[in-house]
Amino acid sequence: MRKIGIIGATGSIGSQAIDIIEQEKDDFQVIFLTAHNQLDKLIKIGKKVNAKHLVLTSERHHTDKVLTGIDELLKVIENEEIDIILSAAVGFSGLIPTYCALKKGIDIALANKESMVAAGRLLNETAKKNDAKIIPVDSEHSAVYQCLLGHDTSYLEKIILTASGGPFRNRPIDSFEFISVEEALNHPNWSMGRKITVDSATMMNKGLELIEARFLFNVGHDKLDVVIHPESIIHSIVAFCDGSYLAQMGVPDMKIPISYAISYPERVKLDIPRLNFFELKKLTFIKPDFERYPCLRIAMEALKIDKNSIYIALNAANEVAVDAFLKEVIKFNEIPMIIERTIEDFPVEDVMDIEEIVKMDKLAREKSRKLMSNII
Ligand SMILES: NC(=O)C1=CN([C@@H]2O[C@H](COP(=O)(O)OP(=O)(O)OC[C@H]3O[C@@H](n4cnc5c(N)ncnc54)[C@H](OP(=O)(O)O)[C@@H]3O)[C@@H](O)[C@H]2O)C=CC1
Ligand SMILES: CC(=O)[C@@H](O)[C@H](O)COP(=O)(O)O
Ligand SMILES: [Mn+2]
Protein backbone atom coordinates (compact mmCIF):
# COMPACT_ATOMS: atom_id res chain seq x y z
CA MET A 1 0.00 0.00 0.00
CA ARG A 2 1.57 3.28 -1.14
CA LYS A 3 0.69 6.41 0.87
CA ILE A 4 0.15 9.23 -1.60
CA GLY A 5 -0.66 12.95 -1.57
CA ILE A 6 -1.71 15.02 -4.59
CA ILE A 7 -1.05 18.75 -4.92
CA GLY A 8 -3.42 20.09 -7.57
CA ALA A 9 -5.84 17.15 -7.45
CA THR A 10 -8.66 19.01 -9.22
CA GLY A 11 -6.61 19.82 -12.33
CA SER A 12 -6.08 17.93 -15.56
CA ILE A 13 -3.15 15.86 -14.20
CA GLY A 14 -4.69 15.53 -10.73
CA SER A 15 -8.04 14.25 -12.06
CA GLN A 16 -6.35 11.62 -14.22
CA ALA A 17 -4.31 10.51 -11.20
CA ILE A 18 -7.54 10.17 -9.21
CA ASP A 19 -8.94 7.86 -11.93
CA ILE A 20 -5.81 5.69 -11.75
CA ILE A 21 -5.94 5.54 -7.94
CA GLU A 22 -9.65 4.63 -8.03
CA GLN A 23 -8.80 1.78 -10.42
CA GLU A 24 -5.88 0.63 -8.23
CA LYS A 25 -7.50 1.27 -4.85
CA ASP A 26 -5.85 -1.70 -3.14
CA ASP A 27 -2.42 -0.22 -3.88
CA PHE A 28 -2.88 3.40 -2.72
CA GLN A 29 -3.88 5.13 0.48
CA VAL A 30 -4.64 8.80 -0.17
CA ILE A 31 -3.24 10.94 2.66
CA PHE A 32 -4.17 14.33 1.18
CA LEU A 33 -5.56 16.11 -1.84
CA THR A 34 -5.31 19.83 -2.57
CA ALA A 35 -7.18 22.27 -4.78
CA HIS A 36 -6.77 26.02 -4.98
CA ASN A 37 -10.35 27.25 -5.50
CA GLN A 38 -12.56 24.36 -6.53
CA LEU A 39 -13.96 23.38 -3.12
CA ASP A 40 -16.92 21.28 -4.31
CA LYS A 41 -14.80 19.28 -6.74
CA LEU A 42 -12.19 18.72 -4.02
CA ILE A 43 -14.80 17.35 -1.61
CA LYS A 44 -16.29 15.14 -4.33
CA ILE A 45 -12.99 13.54 -5.36
CA GLY A 46 -11.93 13.33 -1.72
CA LYS A 47 -14.92 11.06 -1.07
CA LYS A 48 -14.17 8.99 -4.18
CA VAL A 49 -10.71 7.99 -2.97
CA ASN A 50 -11.38 8.27 0.77
CA ALA A 51 -8.74 10.96 1.30
CA LYS A 52 -7.60 11.54 4.88
CA HIS A 53 -7.08 15.33 4.49
CA LEU A 54 -8.42 17.87 2.01
CA VAL A 55 -6.67 21.23 1.67
CA LEU A 56 -7.81 24.31 -0.23
CA THR A 57 -4.61 26.28 -0.74
CA SER A 58 -6.17 29.65 -1.64
CA GLU A 59 -6.34 31.98 1.35
CA ARG A 60 -9.41 33.65 -0.12
CA HIS A 61 -11.79 30.96 1.08
CA HIS A 62 -12.92 30.56 4.65
CA THR A 63 -14.63 27.26 5.20
CA ASP A 64 -14.60 24.70 7.96
CA LYS A 65 -15.33 21.90 5.47
CA VAL A 66 -11.63 21.46 4.64
CA LEU A 67 -8.22 22.73 5.76
CA THR A 68 -7.31 26.06 4.15
CA GLY A 69 -4.07 27.78 3.25
CA ILE A 70 -0.59 26.69 2.23
CA ASP A 71 0.57 26.45 5.87
CA GLU A 72 -2.04 23.76 6.56
CA LEU A 73 -0.71 21.82 3.56
CA LEU A 74 2.85 22.13 4.85
CA LYS A 75 1.71 20.85 8.28
CA VAL A 76 0.11 17.79 6.68
CA ILE A 77 3.31 17.11 4.71
CA GLU A 78 5.38 17.55 7.87
CA ASN A 79 3.22 15.46 10.20
CA GLU A 80 1.91 12.59 8.08
CA GLU A 81 3.76 9.52 6.88
CA ILE A 82 3.75 9.82 3.07
CA ASP A 83 5.63 7.74 0.46
CA ILE A 84 5.06 9.85 -2.63
CA ILE A 85 3.54 13.21 -3.56
CA LEU A 86 2.24 14.00 -7.03
CA SER A 87 3.22 17.64 -7.54
CA ALA A 88 0.60 18.81 -10.05
CA ALA A 89 -0.31 22.38 -9.18
CA VAL A 90 0.18 24.85 -12.01
CA GLY A 91 3.01 27.39 -11.95
CA PHE A 92 5.57 28.62 -9.42
CA SER A 93 3.01 27.99 -6.64
CA GLY A 94 4.05 24.32 -6.76
CA LEU A 95 7.59 25.06 -5.59
CA ILE A 96 7.26 25.49 -1.80
CA PRO A 97 5.30 22.30 -1.06
CA THR A 98 7.51 20.30 -3.46
CA TYR A 99 10.63 21.61 -1.74
CA CYS A 100 9.21 20.90 1.75
CA ALA A 101 8.28 17.36 0.72
CA LEU A 102 11.80 16.67 -0.60
CA LYS A 103 13.27 18.12 2.59
CA LYS A 104 11.31 15.47 4.47
CA GLY A 105 12.65 12.75 2.15
CA ILE A 106 9.33 12.15 0.36
CA ASP A 107 9.54 11.00 -3.27
CA ILE A 108 8.04 13.37 -5.82
CA ALA A 109 6.14 12.48 -8.99
CA LEU A 110 6.82 15.77 -10.76
CA ALA A 111 4.29 17.29 -13.15
CA ASN A 112 4.88 20.86 -11.95
CA LYS A 113 7.75 21.69 -14.34
CA GLU A 114 7.82 25.36 -13.24
CA SER A 115 9.33 24.42 -9.86
CA MET A 116 12.20 22.56 -11.57
CA VAL A 117 12.74 25.52 -13.91
CA ALA A 118 12.96 28.04 -11.06
CA ALA A 119 14.83 25.89 -8.54
CA GLY A 120 16.23 22.82 -10.29
CA ARG A 121 19.58 22.84 -8.53
CA LEU A 122 18.04 23.37 -5.09
CA LEU A 123 15.44 20.64 -5.62
CA ASN A 124 18.07 18.17 -6.86
CA GLU A 125 20.36 18.91 -3.92
CA THR A 126 17.49 18.64 -1.44
CA ALA A 127 16.39 15.32 -2.94
CA LYS A 128 19.94 13.97 -2.81
CA LYS A 129 20.54 15.11 0.77
CA ASN A 130 17.32 13.50 1.97
CA ASP A 131 17.43 10.37 -0.17
CA ALA A 132 14.26 11.23 -2.10
CA LYS A 133 13.53 10.50 -5.77
CA ILE A 134 12.13 12.92 -8.34
CA ILE A 135 10.26 10.90 -10.95
CA PRO A 136 9.07 12.88 -13.98
CA VAL A 137 5.41 12.96 -15.01
CA ASP A 138 5.85 15.28 -18.00
CA SER A 139 5.43 12.94 -21.00
CA GLU A 140 8.78 13.83 -22.63
CA HIS A 141 10.76 13.46 -19.41
CA SER A 142 9.00 10.24 -18.53
CA ALA A 143 10.05 9.00 -21.98
CA VAL A 144 13.67 10.03 -21.42
CA TYR A 145 13.65 8.55 -17.90
CA GLN A 146 12.40 5.22 -19.26
CA CYS A 147 14.91 5.23 -22.13
CA LEU A 148 17.82 5.95 -19.79
CA LEU A 149 16.99 3.26 -17.23
CA GLY A 150 19.80 0.75 -17.05
CA HIS A 151 22.13 2.88 -19.18
CA ASP A 152 25.37 4.55 -18.23
CA THR A 153 24.71 8.24 -18.89
CA SER A 154 28.38 8.89 -19.65
CA TYR A 155 27.55 7.40 -23.09
CA LEU A 156 24.64 9.80 -23.60
CA GLU A 157 25.11 12.08 -26.63
CA LYS A 158 21.77 13.89 -26.88
CA ILE A 159 18.32 14.13 -25.38
CA ILE A 160 15.85 15.05 -28.10
CA LEU A 161 12.51 16.32 -26.84
CA THR A 162 9.61 15.96 -29.23
CA ALA A 163 7.05 18.75 -29.60
CA SER A 164 3.68 18.77 -31.31
CA GLY A 165 4.24 22.30 -32.65
CA GLY A 166 0.86 23.31 -31.20
CA PRO A 167 -2.16 24.66 -33.07
CA PHE A 168 -0.26 27.33 -35.05
CA ARG A 169 2.30 25.18 -36.81
CA ASN A 170 0.92 26.14 -40.21
CA ARG A 171 -0.75 29.46 -39.47
CA PRO A 172 0.69 32.54 -41.28
CA ILE A 173 2.99 34.31 -38.80
CA ASP A 174 1.69 37.75 -39.80
CA SER A 175 -1.72 36.78 -38.35
CA PHE A 176 -0.40 35.87 -34.87
CA GLU A 177 -1.57 39.17 -33.38
CA PHE A 178 -5.16 38.11 -34.12
CA ILE A 179 -4.96 34.72 -32.39
CA SER A 180 -7.90 34.33 -30.03
CA VAL A 181 -7.87 32.63 -26.62
CA GLU A 182 -10.16 29.95 -27.98
CA GLU A 183 -7.77 29.22 -30.87
CA ALA A 184 -4.76 29.04 -28.53
CA LEU A 185 -6.60 26.62 -26.26
CA ASN A 186 -7.27 24.22 -29.14
CA HIS A 187 -4.28 21.86 -28.78
CA PRO A 188 -4.09 19.32 -31.64
CA ASN A 189 -3.21 16.25 -29.52
CA TRP A 190 -3.46 16.78 -25.75
CA SER A 191 -6.25 17.86 -23.45
CA MET A 192 -4.58 19.86 -20.65
CA GLY A 193 -5.01 22.85 -18.32
CA ARG A 194 -5.25 26.34 -19.84
CA LYS A 195 -1.78 27.64 -18.92
CA ILE A 196 0.18 24.71 -20.35
CA THR A 197 -2.03 24.67 -23.45
CA VAL A 198 -1.07 28.28 -24.24
CA ASP A 199 2.58 27.37 -23.47
CA SER A 200 2.32 24.62 -26.08
CA ALA A 201 0.98 27.11 -28.63
CA THR A 202 3.94 29.50 -28.09
CA MET A 203 6.30 26.51 -27.61
CA MET A 204 7.42 28.01 -24.30
CA ASN A 205 6.24 24.64 -22.98
CA LYS A 206 9.16 23.04 -24.84
CA GLY A 207 11.46 25.80 -23.58
CA LEU A 208 10.43 25.06 -19.99
CA GLU A 209 10.85 21.34 -20.72
CA LEU A 210 14.41 21.87 -21.97
CA ILE A 211 15.27 23.58 -18.68
CA GLU A 212 13.40 20.85 -16.77
CA ALA A 213 15.45 18.22 -18.65
CA ARG A 214 18.66 20.13 -17.96
CA PHE A 215 18.10 19.54 -14.23
CA LEU A 216 16.29 16.18 -14.23
CA PHE A 217 19.03 14.55 -16.29
CA ASN A 218 21.94 16.83 -15.39
CA VAL A 219 22.89 17.76 -18.97
CA GLY A 220 24.07 21.02 -20.53
CA HIS A 221 22.45 22.90 -23.43
CA ASP A 222 24.80 21.21 -25.94
CA LYS A 223 23.15 17.85 -25.19
CA LEU A 224 19.57 19.09 -25.55
CA ASP A 225 17.53 19.37 -28.72
CA VAL A 226 13.94 19.75 -29.89
CA VAL A 227 12.23 18.25 -32.90
CA ILE A 228 8.65 18.93 -33.94
CA HIS A 229 6.74 15.69 -34.29
CA PRO A 230 3.13 16.65 -35.01
CA GLU A 231 1.66 13.18 -34.29
CA SER A 232 2.86 13.11 -30.60
CA ILE A 233 3.44 9.34 -30.77
CA ILE A 234 7.15 9.39 -29.99
CA HIS A 235 7.34 11.16 -26.63
CA SER A 236 11.10 11.78 -26.73
CA ILE A 237 14.38 10.23 -27.83
CA VAL A 238 17.83 9.62 -26.34
CA ALA A 239 20.92 9.22 -28.51
CA PHE A 240 24.08 7.38 -27.38
CA CYS A 241 27.68 7.88 -28.52
CA ASP A 242 27.59 4.75 -30.73
CA GLY A 243 24.84 6.20 -32.92
CA SER A 244 22.11 4.22 -31.20
CA TYR A 245 18.75 5.93 -30.51
CA LEU A 246 16.09 4.88 -28.02
CA ALA A 247 12.60 6.35 -28.08
CA GLN A 248 9.48 5.80 -26.01
CA MET A 249 6.16 5.64 -27.85
CA GLY A 250 2.48 5.44 -27.05
CA VAL A 251 -0.84 7.14 -27.75
CA PRO A 252 -0.88 10.70 -26.39
CA ASP A 253 -2.49 9.94 -23.02
CA MET A 254 -1.09 11.36 -19.78
CA LYS A 255 -2.36 8.36 -17.81
CA ILE A 256 0.72 6.50 -19.07
CA PRO A 257 3.38 8.79 -17.53
CA ILE A 258 1.23 9.60 -14.46
CA SER A 259 0.69 5.93 -13.60
CA TYR A 260 4.35 5.17 -14.32
CA ALA A 261 5.56 7.90 -11.94
CA ILE A 262 3.22 7.11 -9.04
CA SER A 263 3.69 3.33 -9.32
CA TYR A 264 7.41 3.23 -10.19
CA PRO A 265 9.08 0.74 -10.49
CA GLU A 266 5.84 -1.18 -11.04
CA ARG A 267 3.46 -0.60 -13.94
CA VAL A 268 -0.33 -0.34 -14.04
CA LYS A 269 -2.51 -2.11 -16.62
CA LEU A 270 -4.29 0.76 -18.39
CA ASP A 271 -7.41 0.44 -20.50
CA ILE A 272 -6.42 2.95 -23.17
CA PRO A 273 -6.00 2.53 -26.95
CA ARG A 274 -2.88 0.66 -28.16
CA LEU A 275 -0.78 1.85 -31.08
CA ASN A 276 -1.86 0.37 -34.37
CA PHE A 277 1.26 0.56 -36.52
CA PHE A 278 -0.62 -0.30 -39.71
CA GLU A 279 -2.97 2.68 -39.19
CA LEU A 280 -0.17 5.07 -38.17
CA LYS A 281 1.30 4.95 -41.70
CA LYS A 282 3.96 7.60 -41.11
CA LEU A 283 5.59 9.65 -38.38
CA THR A 284 6.92 13.08 -39.34
CA PHE A 285 9.66 15.34 -37.95
CA ILE A 286 10.24 19.06 -38.56
CA LYS A 287 12.89 21.55 -37.44
CA PRO A 288 11.43 24.30 -35.18
CA ASP A 289 11.43 27.77 -36.69
CA PHE A 290 12.40 30.55 -34.23
CA GLU A 291 10.46 33.19 -36.14
CA ARG A 292 7.28 31.21 -35.53
CA TYR A 293 8.27 30.24 -31.98
CA PRO A 294 10.33 33.09 -30.43
CA CYS A 295 9.62 31.70 -26.93
CA LEU A 296 11.63 28.59 -27.78
CA ARG A 297 14.56 30.75 -28.89
CA ILE A 298 14.39 32.78 -25.64
CA ALA A 299 14.45 29.61 -23.53
CA MET A 300 17.37 28.16 -25.54
CA GLU A 301 19.33 31.37 -25.03
CA ALA A 302 18.58 31.24 -21.29
CA LEU A 303 19.93 27.67 -21.22
CA LYS A 304 23.25 28.91 -22.53
CA ILE A 305 23.48 31.41 -19.63
CA ASP A 306 22.39 28.66 -17.21
CA LYS A 307 21.83 30.83 -14.13
CA ASN A 308 18.60 30.26 -12.31
CA SER A 309 17.80 33.97 -11.77
CA ILE A 310 17.24 33.99 -15.55
CA TYR A 311 15.12 30.82 -15.40
CA ILE A 312 13.08 32.37 -12.57
CA ALA A 313 12.56 35.56 -14.60
CA LEU A 314 11.65 33.63 -17.75
CA ASN A 315 9.13 31.50 -15.89
CA ALA A 316 7.59 34.39 -13.92
CA ALA A 317 7.28 36.62 -16.99
CA ASN A 318 5.71 33.76 -18.92
CA GLU A 319 3.14 33.15 -16.16
CA VAL A 320 2.27 36.85 -16.03
CA ALA A 321 2.05 37.18 -19.82
CA VAL A 322 0.03 33.99 -20.38
CA ASP A 323 -2.41 35.00 -17.65
CA ALA A 324 -2.79 38.42 -19.31
CA PHE A 325 -3.34 36.79 -22.70
CA LEU A 326 -6.00 34.46 -21.21
CA LYS A 327 -7.72 37.54 -19.75
CA GLU A 328 -7.51 39.21 -23.18
CA VAL A 329 -5.31 42.01 -21.81
CA ILE A 330 -2.43 41.40 -24.27
CA LYS A 331 -2.12 39.81 -27.71
CA PHE A 332 -0.66 36.37 -28.36
CA ASN A 333 2.42 37.81 -30.10
CA GLU A 334 3.12 40.08 -27.11
CA ILE A 335 3.82 37.09 -24.82
CA PRO A 336 7.44 36.63 -26.06
CA MET A 337 8.06 40.39 -26.04
CA ILE A 338 7.24 40.62 -22.32
CA ILE A 339 9.37 37.61 -21.47
CA GLU A 340 12.37 38.83 -23.46
CA ARG A 341 12.23 42.32 -21.97
CA THR A 342 11.83 40.96 -18.42
CA ILE A 343 15.00 38.90 -18.79
CA GLU A 344 16.90 41.85 -20.28
CA ASP A 345 19.08 43.46 -17.58
CA PHE A 346 17.80 41.01 -14.96
CA PRO A 347 20.43 40.03 -12.34
CA VAL A 348 22.42 37.01 -13.57
CA GLU A 349 23.20 34.73 -10.66
CA ASP A 350 22.55 31.33 -9.15
CA VAL A 351 20.08 31.57 -6.30
CA MET A 352 20.05 28.56 -4.01
CA ASP A 353 18.13 29.86 -1.01
CA ILE A 354 14.37 29.21 -1.18
CA GLU A 355 13.42 32.61 0.24
CA GLU A 356 15.72 34.34 -2.24
CA ILE A 357 14.14 32.36 -5.06
CA VAL A 358 10.68 33.53 -3.96
CA LYS A 359 11.94 37.15 -3.80
CA MET A 360 13.48 36.87 -7.28
CA ASP A 361 10.21 35.51 -8.65
CA LYS A 362 8.32 38.49 -7.15
CA LEU A 363 10.84 40.94 -8.60
CA ALA A 364 10.45 39.42 -12.08
CA ARG A 365 6.63 39.51 -11.84
CA GLU A 366 6.73 43.18 -10.86
CA LYS A 367 9.01 43.94 -13.80
CA SER A 368 6.85 42.10 -16.32
CA ARG A 369 3.65 43.74 -15.01
CA LYS A 370 5.29 47.15 -15.39
CA LEU A 371 6.38 46.30 -18.95
CA MET A 372 2.89 45.14 -19.70
CA SER A 373 1.31 48.36 -18.46
CA ASN A 374 3.59 50.20 -20.92
CA ILE A 375 2.31 48.26 -23.91
CA ILE A 376 -1.44 48.23 -23.13
N1 LIG B 1 -2.15 18.69 -18.18
C1 LIG B 1 -1.18 17.97 -18.70
O1 LIG B 1 -1.42 17.07 -19.51
C2 LIG B 1 0.24 18.24 -18.32
C3 LIG B 1 0.57 19.11 -17.29
N2 LIG B 1 1.86 19.27 -16.91
C4 LIG B 1 2.15 20.20 -15.82
O2 LIG B 1 1.40 19.82 -14.68
C5 LIG B 1 1.02 20.97 -13.93
C6 LIG B 1 -0.50 20.98 -13.80
O3 LIG B 1 -1.05 21.16 -15.08
P1 LIG B 1 -2.61 20.95 -15.35
O4 LIG B 1 -3.11 19.78 -14.57
O5 LIG B 1 -2.77 20.98 -16.81
O6 LIG B 1 -3.21 22.30 -14.73
P2 LIG B 1 -4.71 22.64 -14.36
O7 LIG B 1 -4.88 24.09 -14.56
O8 LIG B 1 -5.65 21.71 -15.02
O9 LIG B 1 -4.78 22.31 -12.78
C7 LIG B 1 -4.03 23.04 -11.89
C8 LIG B 1 -4.21 22.52 -10.47
O10 LIG B 1 -3.47 23.38 -9.61
C9 LIG B 1 -4.35 24.07 -8.71
N3 LIG B 1 -3.87 25.44 -8.58
C10 LIG B 1 -4.14 26.49 -9.40
N4 LIG B 1 -3.52 27.60 -8.96
C11 LIG B 1 -2.87 27.24 -7.83
C12 LIG B 1 -2.08 27.96 -6.89
N5 LIG B 1 -1.83 29.27 -7.01
N6 LIG B 1 -1.56 27.27 -5.83
C13 LIG B 1 -1.80 25.96 -5.68
N7 LIG B 1 -2.56 25.23 -6.53
C14 LIG B 1 -3.06 25.87 -7.60
C15 LIG B 1 -5.72 23.97 -9.31
O11 LIG B 1 -6.73 24.09 -8.31
P3 LIG B 1 -8.24 24.57 -8.71
O12 LIG B 1 -8.76 23.48 -9.58
O13 LIG B 1 -8.95 24.65 -7.42
O14 LIG B 1 -8.08 25.86 -9.41
C16 LIG B 1 -5.65 22.59 -9.96
O15 LIG B 1 -5.85 21.59 -9.00
C17 LIG B 1 1.59 22.17 -14.67
O16 LIG B 1 2.83 22.51 -14.13
C18 LIG B 1 1.78 21.65 -16.10
O17 LIG B 1 2.81 22.31 -16.79
C19 LIG B 1 2.89 18.60 -17.50
C20 LIG B 1 2.63 17.74 -18.54
C21 LIG B 1 1.31 17.50 -19.04
C1 LIG C 1 1.52 16.02 -22.45
C2 LIG C 1 2.70 16.81 -22.17
O1 LIG C 1 3.68 16.33 -21.65
C3 LIG C 1 2.70 18.22 -22.59
O2 LIG C 1 3.73 18.95 -21.94
C4 LIG C 1 2.91 18.19 -24.07
O3 LIG C 1 4.26 18.08 -24.28
C5 LIG C 1 2.32 19.36 -24.73
O4 LIG C 1 2.53 19.28 -26.08
P1 LIG C 1 3.58 20.17 -26.88
O5 LIG C 1 4.57 19.21 -27.43
O6 LIG C 1 2.70 20.81 -27.90
O7 LIG C 1 4.18 21.16 -25.94
MN1 LIG D 1 5.35 17.72 -21.86
TrEMBL record:
Mn(2+) binds at residues 138, 140, 209. GO terms for molecular function: 1-deoxy-D-xylulose-5-phosphate reductoisomerase activity; isomerase activity; manganese ion binding; NADPH binding. Its EC number is 1.1.1.267. The keyword DNA damage does not apply. It holds the Pfam family DXPR_C. 1-deoxy-D-xylulose 5-phosphate binds at residues 113, 139-140, 164, 187, 200, 205-206, 209. It is an enzyme of class 1 (oxidoreductase). Its cofactor is Mg(2+); Mn(2+). Residues 249-366 form the DXP reductoisomerase C-terminal domain. Pathway: Isoprenoid biosynthesis; isopentenyl diphosphate biosynthesis via DXP pathway; isopentenyl diphosphate from 1-deoxy-D-xylulose 5-phosphate: step 1/6. One of its GO terms (biological process) is isopentenyl diphosphate biosynthetic process, methylerythritol 4-phosphate pathway involved in terpenoid biosynthetic process. NADPH binds at residues 10-13, 112, 114, 193. Residues 134-217 form the 1-deoxy-D-xylulose 5-phosphate reductoisomerase C-terminal domain. It catalyses: 2-C-methyl-D-erythritol 4-phosphate + NADP(+) = 1-deoxy-D-xylulose 5-phosphate + NADPH + H(+). It comes from the Bacteria. Residues 4-120 form the 1-deoxy-D-xylulose 5-phosphate reductoisomerase N-terminal domain. InterPro entries: DXP_reductoisomerase, DXP_reductoisomerase_C, DXP_reductoisomerase_N, DXPR_C, DXPR_C_sf, NAD(P)-bd_dom_sf. Gene3D superfamilies: 1.10.1740.10, NAD(P)-binding Rossmann-like Domain. Transmembrane segments: none annotated. The keyword RNA-binding does not apply. Catalyzes the NADPH-dependent rearrangement and reduction of 1-deoxy-D-xylulose-5-phosphate (DXP) to 2-C-methyl-D-erythritol 4-phosphate (MEP). HAMAP family: DXP_reductoisom. This is 1-deoxy-D-xylulose 5-phosphate reductoisomerase. It comes from Deferribacter autotrophicus.
